[in-house]
Design brief:
Number of strands: 2
CATH topology: Growth Hormone, Chain: A
Order of helices and strands: HHHHHHHHHHHHHHHHHEEHHH
Distance between the termini: 29 Å
Shape: globular
Strand order of the largest sheet: 1-2
CATH superfamily: MFS general substrate transporter like domains
Strand content: under 5%
Radius of gyration: 22 Å
Largest sheet: 2 strands, antiparallel
Number of domains: 1
Number of helices: 20
CATH architecture: Up-down Bundle
CATH class: Mainly Alpha
């Protein structure tokens, strides 16, 4: 592994402090401390997606600034604005607007940093190494998630308010500073292509890439409909301690670490679309499990959800990093900007509407033979159905290599049962004509895949 590859992993680990703080159950706990309701929580949860809309202007900024590494460090430094929240807590002020404004500003620049990071990394990491490299990087970041999330959960549960939140945010600020320092030695290669606004016409003329962009918009729309309310249900309705939630997260993270290796190797051989669709199929069943998440069965539901989520989300998180690189005809910041823009638009619509829907569903309670069902659990079941509908949308996108999950599973089962199988690579479709090139024939023994 090269110096740049190692440093980008270190930077990702330190940046993970901020992402754990601002997403999921940790942020929900802080939001409830600042007296958020369902609508405010839904709107605020939209910020990571909403500000992806700004990525459409990032290519122009990169073109004028030229130095992508310094630009990335500048954008990431705005995460340090969270010291305002620390001061607010110390002064005893818990106005929701303080948290909303701080999160909005820091997240706006974090979104600008995302496109800058993608542009820089695409020039540093060779295409043939991306699947394996991002698999390793994801494993190590997942391991840091395990440690950081448990630390934050332990502090929130065991340190009295408001000092628990002061400690958690302060640790995040230290991690952000270390992440900025780790970027200093990273090389900043010259731009291979410039992502100017004039390239928008070219990007929008590529129907295949637009299919992926629309798929990303739909995916973020349905995710943000319910994303903040899984942890909300655990904390607000069931009053599950943060430490117990952290145990489930640890299980999910350990499973993800294992499957990042598996999915990474599969993505290099079978294509990222295969991995993505397989992941969507798996995580589509997790919302149905949440029908068991009531006062009696939540330990079983949390454990089962952790196992399935660990397998499925490892596939999705890995694939979403690389799919835009595979679907685009060439690497340009404008492709990443359009991809992020559509994702942000979908997330914006999903989050705003999701908060109102969650508030409506959460008003109701059902009892079936003394089995308690919260109204919001019905909302989660609807989410599962919507996730399944994403499969044909992503399947319509053409990529460099694709093996149908049906064929893939069929071959795996045949291998397990020791029956003759199809040659799986004969079903790997090279779906983009522009990547075809002549390969000189070599007289050597054919290597069978089995």
């Amino acid at each position: 592994m090269t110096k740049n590859e190692s440093l980008l992993i270190v930077e990702g680990i330190f940046s993970n402090f901020y992402f754990i703080l601002t997403q999921g159950v940790v942020f929900t706990s802080i939001a409830l401390f600042f007296n958020f309701n369902e609508v405010l929580l839904g709107i605020t949860a939209a910020f990571p997606m909403v500000f992806q809309l700004l990525q459409i202007v990032t290519p122009s900024i990169i073109e004028k600034f030229k130095r992508r590494k310094r630009l990335l460090m500048l954008f990431n430094s705005f995460k340090l604005l969270w010291f305002v929240v620390v001061i607010s807590i110390m002064l005893g002020k818990k106005s929701p607007m303080i948290l909303i404004i701080t999160f909005a500003v820091s997240q706006a620049f974090t979104s600008l940093a995302g496109n800058t990071w993608s542009s820089l990394v695409s020039d540093i990491i060779p295409s043939e190494k991306r699947g394996r490299y991002f698999g390793i990087r994801s494993v190590l970041i997942s391991f840091s998630t395990l440690l950081i999330f448990y630390l934050f959960s332990y502090i929130i549960d065991n340190v009295p308010e408001p000092y628990n939140y002061i400690y958690v945010i302060s640790i995040t600020l230290i991690g952000t500073i270390l992440g900025l320092i780790s970027l200093i030695p990273v090389d900043d290669p010259p731009l291979k292509t410039l992502g100017t606004i004039s390239e928008l016409k070219e990007v929008f003329s590529e129907k295949n890439f637009l299919k992926l962009a629309f798929a990303n918009m739909y995916w973020n729309f349905i995710l943000l409909l319910t994303a903040p309310f899984f942890s909300y249900h655990q904390l607000k309705n069931l009053h599950i301690p943060m430490t117990y939630i952290s145990y489930a997260t640890i299980v999910m993270t350990l499973i993800s670490m294992l499957f990042y290796f598996i999915w990474g190797k599969m993505s290099d051989k079978l294509g990222n679309k295969t991995v993505m669709i397989s992941g969507i199929l798996i995580v589509s069943f997790t919302p149905f499990i949440w029908i068991l998440m009531n006062e009696k069965y939540w330990p079983f539901a949390m454990g089962l959800d952790a196992v399935i989520s660990g397998i499925g989300w490892a596939a999705i998180n890995l694939s979403l990093l690389i799919l835009p690189m595979e679907a685009a005809k060439r690497i340009s910041p404008m492709y990443f900007a359009v991809f992020g823009f559509f994702g942000g638009l979908g997330g914006l619509i999903g989050s705003i509407s999701g908060g109102y829907f969650a508030a409506i569903f959460n008003k109701y309670n059902f009892y079936i033979n003394n089995y308690h069902i919260f109204g919001i659990q019905i909302y989660f079941v609807i989410e599962g159905i919507l996730r399944l509908l994403a499969i044909p949308i992503f399947a319509s996108v053409k990529t460099q290599k694709y093996v149908s999950p049906t064929i893939f599973v069929f071959n795996v089962l045949n291998v397990i049962s020791r029956r003759p199988t199809q040659k799986i690579y004969e079903n790997a479709k090279i779906e983009s004509a522009y990547i075809l090139k002549k390969v000189p024939l070599k007289k050597e023994r054919v290597k069978r895949w089995w």
